[in-house]
Amino acid sequence: MDNRPDTRLLPNFEKLFIEDRIGHGRHLFTLLRLFRGMYGGLFVSLLFFILKHSPIWLIPIITGDMINVVSNPDNININRIWIDLAIISVVIAQNVPTQLLHTSYLSRSSRQVEAGLRGTLVRKLQHLSISYHSELRSGKLQSKVLRDVEAIETLAKQMMYVFIPALLNVIVAFSVTAVNNPLVALFFVLIIPVGALMIFGFRKNIQRKNREFRKQIEEISGQITETVEMIPLTRAHGLDKVEIEKTDSTLMDLRGKGYRLDVAEALFGSSGWVMFTLFQMGALAFCCWLAAQGKMTVGDIVMYQGFFGTLLGSVNQLINVYPQFAKGFESMQSVSEILQSTDVEEYQGTIPVMHVQGGFSFERMHFKYRDTDQHVLSDFNLDIRPGECVAFVGESGAGKSTVLNMLIGYYKPTRGRLLVDGVPMDQIDLKSYRKHLAVVPQNTVLFHGSIRDNITYGLTDVSEEKLLEVIRMTQLQEVVASLPDGLDTKIGEHGGKLSGGQRQRIAIARALIRDPSVVLLDEATSALDNISEYQVQQAMRLLVKGRTTFIVAHRLSTIRDADRIVVMNKGRIVESGTFAELMELQGAFYKLQQMQMEYAGIS
Ligand SMILES: Nc1ncnc2c1ncn2[C@@H]1O[C@H](COP(=O)(O)OP(=O)(O)OP(=O)(O)O)[C@@H](O)[C@H]1O
């Protein structure tokens, strides 16, 4: 048996979800199509299932036969018992290898679908627009990639492990009975409408309670994540008790909903058990009655009871698996919400960008974010020469970061356009263009990994020399030397083990090592001490040299060096010029500076 995982490329299911337009009862169809190309394996798995499951069907027959042999004292054929025993022993023993083969074939397909679905979702997330991501909470996405895909995989497995076996059980038990005794088979048939009636009667209630419980679970998982993230803040403000009480009340709600679900399921389960056991007893009485009339042997009674037991067990399984099916279908709906979304990146140009000189032109650009009425940029005109360093200043909310977003191509202007080296942004292939950019965001994004990984993020061939040079340029060598594993020291998630200034310098090193043509710098607002500030400034100076640079500036020192300062107010350019020119003008920039100086004086 080959137990190696399937190494074929992961399937991409995006097209399938778009074509199938999930919903309106198409879940089962889509589930089936997810396994396209694997039907052969599934069929083999089913064959092995029939083999491994065969003892369940054979045991009642053999048991009946053995009893029939001994219940006829005049003609006991002891050899037949030995043959029966030998047959059933072989049939039982083959369960181990066939079970393994059945699981191996099935699991290979279902795990492939599971991995493929997760891969498809992650790929789609990379293509969805920034607006889409800013509207959706990351916790929800995470839950779709992990929890919902798991529920779909469970659904597929339940289908193969529970639904199909139970259905086969019903078919086999019924067929064998029908061939032997149509009257008893008729009795078996009665069980189907009773089972259907049971599901129909309880379905809505159980479904509703299940959903309420699941929603509450989602609520509490969201809340717990938030609570854990906020622990330092909560502790600092002495709000532990408030947080605990908040969680307690949600937990109490969950307890109530869980209790009501348990009771409803218990009522459902026990009603089913009572009804079906009464049926079984009725069937037993019926068989005894037939036997009393000489129409049935004792062994047959035992055999039918065995089949009836299997049949009832299967019907019960089919009924009980229902809530899980509902959950799986709901998860398919949830995943399809992402996969069917057409909200991908707005720019879809195709001209590849081999080289960026760094000349930019904003031509009468207007822009507003989705779902907002007000324009964030209005009639924005600006020409930037290659290699120029432009600093944007203005009050909070003036639209400075938005200008950087437009340069990255996150959003398309509502009116006007942006040219890169004379080519309209909507014509160029953004992926190739962005390779020439380096972005240093306001909040440095560090991931859980080594300092080396964080600096060389996304680059494959970085020489040790170049890395060390960048570390020297950003004055990180002392920091690296003081860490236990040097460059390979793992930094905590979000860089928790580093200071603010160190984090910023890592972000600058990450930009420097890419040797970009264009640098976009959203300066961090958080204050640093003098030494850190100096180190960050030095690193920034090196980064900016010889490249077109856009800086959203908060610090006086950065602005002084800029070739041009653009003062923004409510999305418009109100002044622009060098530091000296603007100071001389004594306009908006001058006022901003005065305010900053006063503030610095006070503090
Ligand atoms: N994703 C978004 N969706 C809707 N509105 C947004 C979004 N991002 C920013 N805005 C709004 O756009 C305006 C400009 O924001 P922007 O971040 O560009 O300002 P800023 O000048 O960089 O401010 P700050 O100095 O505080 O960072 C603000 O009113 C802000 O509320």
TrEMBL record:
The chain crosses the membrane at residues 34-51, 159-177, 183-202, 266-292. It is a multi-pass membrane protein. Pfam families: ABC_membrane (PF00664), ABC_tran (PF00005). CDD domains: ABC_6TM_exporters (cd07346). One of its GO terms (molecular function) is ATP binding. Residues 360-595 form the ABC transporter domain. It comes from the Bacteria. It is found in: Cell membrane. Coiled coil: none annotated. Residues 58-327 form the ABC transmembrane type-1 domain. The keyword Acetylation does not apply. Keywords: ATP-binding, Membrane, Nucleotide-binding, Transmembrane, Transmembrane helix. This is ABC transporter ATP-binding protein.
